[in-house]
Request: fold
Amino acid sequence: MPNPENHGSDARMKTFDEMIDGYGRFRETDWQHQRERWEELREGQSPQVMVISCSDSRVDPAQIFDVAPGELFVVRNVAALVPPFETTPGRHGVSAALEFAVQFLKVKEVVVMGHGMCGGCQAALTQDLHGNDLGAGGFVAHWIDMLDETREPIAEKFGTAGREAERAMELAAVKVSLANLRTFPCVQEKEASGELKLRGAYFAISDGVLHLLDEESGEFRPA
Ligand SMILES: [Zn+2]
Reply:
């Protein structure tokens, strides 16, 4: 999610019409080079890995992991969050994608990838959008309030501003999503039987370094 407080210059960013030129290049190069692959993929997809990443324009999983079409099943949303298994009314987009990936595509790994300079995590930390109307920040506020409990000790220890606090929130959010993934019965079953692995990751935008979570120690270490 773009950080509204801290966005960069947009002067050199392409419009969608300009991106159609990119599509032209894709048709000339990648599409031509990978014709066989696309032909195979016409029959269906069978990715082994699902990634849950932030909508932020800087953290595209396919780009970071340099994978070919068909290899990565991706969900992106504000702050790369997975809500818990909920049966309340409403349209549960992440749950639907997870269910499809785990039960039908039978992916073997689900990766939650947080990232540095995450506007969604920053908003969770500052709670600046709390109380806003739906459509005026309220949707974001309600989405990221799933981090409220985790936020408390972080805000107490580091305050609500500065990279130290923000990074702690970003890393903690990955752990919240992993814990929420484990509230889904299908995830519990498949993790217990060894059919499914959960992984936590963190992409530090400033230096481009991917960190992987060691769940035993709770530490994130460079990959
Ligand atoms: Zn983000």
